[in-house]
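explain this chain.
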Amino acid sequence: MLSYLVKIQVKAAALRDERGATAVEYGLMVALIAIVIIVAVSLLGSNLNKLFSKVASSV
């Protein structure tokens, strides 16, 4: 009986292994940060282009 309980605990511990989950979480965070950077650059890029064009035309 005791050996059966030990086998169940070992299987439960293997199911609770979260090493792969942290890698997935880091991957999701990197993807989200990349999306934010792309959106910020695209929004600021068009505004900076207008600003530089205005300065270039005034000179």
Observations:
- The chain has a mean pLDDT of 83.
